[in-house]
Structures are given as structure tokens and as C-alpha cells.
Protein: Serine hydrolase
Organism: Streptomyces chiangmaiensis
Amino acid sequence: METTSRVGTQAPAAEGGQQLPLARRAVDGYLQASFPWYGLDEAFTGPRWLMQVGAAADGAVEHGSIGHGEEPSVRSEATEDKERFAVVVTVAANPVRHSPDGTGLLEATSVSSAAWLAGVGLLSFTWPGQLDHGLRDDWLDQQTETAWALADDLFGPAWSTLSLPVDGVPTSFYYRESAFGWVLAGSTQAGVHVGGYGRGMSAYGLGFAVVKDIAAYR
């Protein structure tokens, strides 16, 4: 998926030329999506927070993430056993389609797209204790390629299946665990793909539901 990640939209200005608060700019990006957003269902009563959306070259929002629990920092030996968070990634289900200028085709999205975005999301908050700053970029590049290979092979041995409720309906997800946390991905009856990743919160007790009021998230 060749998308551009961004926090909300490009800094809109309020009356008088003043910049809107970051929280308002962030939610504006989510409000521009043509598909429903998913988060954890009402059984989760902890903090919820917006992360970022990803847009195609023509500016259309294609995916985004919503966090739950403690906002994670990059994993270190001091925090790895304390953080408890789960992130839900929503990906618009787009078939292969023509680019806006009519010169080519845009990549279709699938459950693998959600699995890859979730895997890369988990990596972004991961820092193996044995690596120094100079080596992390190389490690991250290698692990990102591995995440893509794994996402492209959902029927492979690295994945198991897990049934979780989505809008109250039992839904099958692809699921895998690693030393850094867990990743899952599946599809919904609402026509979007849902990915997830986290640490410190078991995936087995989670449920997903459409976000009724994305503007209430901060």
C-alpha cells in the first residue's frame, strides 16, 4: 500500500489565521474518511486516543489507527513489562481501481494490507534492548520486510486463527504472537478490513465495534 501517513489533515487555520489545536486537526483527518472506523467495543473502559490516518496520492483517506490503553513509547527494557495497549487499524476495502489521472491502477487492499499495517505499527514501538541507536534502522528495515512477507502468507505456519466479536458477530481473525507483542487481522461485514496489535493486553478477550462518534476521541 503506497499511502502517506499523516496526523489529521494539513494544519487547517481557524478564523484570523490561527492554527487549530492538534486534537482538532487530528480528528479532521478521520472525519474525511468514506468508511466507518473501528475500535474496541464497550467492554473496554480505558483511555482511547487517535493516532494517524494514511491517504492515497489523491488525498483520499485509506486507513488509520486508534489506540486504547496506555499510549506506548518505544519498547525498552524498562517499559516492556509495564505497557498495556491495543491499537485497532481500519483499512478501506478497495478493489483494484484506476488512478485519478487514468494512467495506471491502484493497489487493491485486503486482509493482508491490515496485517502488514498492524505488524509495522507494532514495530514502530519496538526497540530490542541489545541494539544501539545506530543499528535500529537496519533492524527496522529488516523486520518491516519480514512483516510484509508474513502478511502475504496468512495461511502459513506463522499464523493461527482466532474468533473475536465484531459488532457482536463472531468473526475469524488471523493471529500471531512475537517477542514484541501480538498482531491480528480480519474483515468485517461493514466492508472494511481490521487489523490490531498490542502488548500487555491479551487479544483473546477483545471485541471490536464501529466507532459511533470519532469526534469524541482525543
Q: What stands out?
A: The chain has three helices and twelve strands. The chain has a mean pLDDT of 79. The chain has one domain: 4-216. The radius of gyration is 17 Å.
